[in-house]
Structure formats: structure tokens, C-alpha cells
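Here is one chain, start to finish.
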Amino acid sequence: MDCVKNIMVLVLVMASLHASMATVYKVGDANGWTIPVVDYYKNWAADKTFKVGDVIVFEYNNHHNVLEVNQNDYDTCNVTAALQTYESGNDSIALSRSGYFYYLCGIPGHCLAGQKVDIRVVDDSSNAPSPPPRPAPAAVPSSPLKNNGASASSKGVLGAVFGLAVLAVAYSVSG
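Its structure:
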């Protein structure tokens, strides 16, 4: 019986460690999801490594929305064939698989003005194949509003709280 308890504790601790590795990214950082300066969202996504399990959050006012689309619709700003539509103004989307995810604003003219983002998600496991490389876009000068960092992160805090709760329950069950 003690062996079963120990195995359960080990499994729960491992699960809590995995949960603590997820990062929450606010799309556009402090600017949120709005009509940007040229290439803002492309530059925003370029310096981040999105992993399976991470969460992206779109925060915006009622003059915007978020459409998940395929690559062709992303490239052409076609808003008529969305795979998913979000309209809450505070949309959290879990990145559940590796590959590319394409999001744009479906309000007329917003995508053409640059309100779109291409998220490449990598599989964090060492034996998973990488997604095929995407052709590099033409070089464009960097936006002066490029943010080189601060996205909200759930690393450590939620995982630590969850891990401590699991350990407390395991301790109370075993003793």
C-alpha cells in the first residue's frame, strides 16, 4: 500500500512540474490586440519561443475580435473562413500542439493594417520532429515599438502552489 501511495505522489509531483513550465503570453504585451504600427505583431512573436502547453491571451476592446485562420487566409487577410472566432475581449487560447497558428482581426481593414499574428509552437520534447521551416518574409526595418521581453509568466507561481498543494495532500494521506 505504501508503494502505491509513493507512486501516486511521484506522478502528482511530476504533473505539477510539467504544469509549472507553461508560459502565458499577452499578445502585443502592453499594447494588447489593436491596430499596430507596421510589423508590430510579427516582431512581437519573433523573439518568443512558444511551446506546447503555453497560453496566448488576446486583450482588446469591442472594436476588434480574433479569428483563427489557415495560412492562406492569414496571408491574404481573408476573414470569411475562420477556423475559430473569439469575441470576448479577453481570450485565452491554449497552444495544444506544435505547428503554426494564424490569428487576425476580422474587422474590415484591420488585418490589412497589420493586426495579425503568426504563432509558431515548438514541441518541447527532445524526440519530436520540428515543424517545416516557413519561408522568410522580405526584410523590413524593425518597429520602434518592438518589445523585447516582458510577457506575463505563470512559471513557478502556479506550479509551486499546485506542487505544494499536492505534497500537502499526499502527506496527509500517507500519515
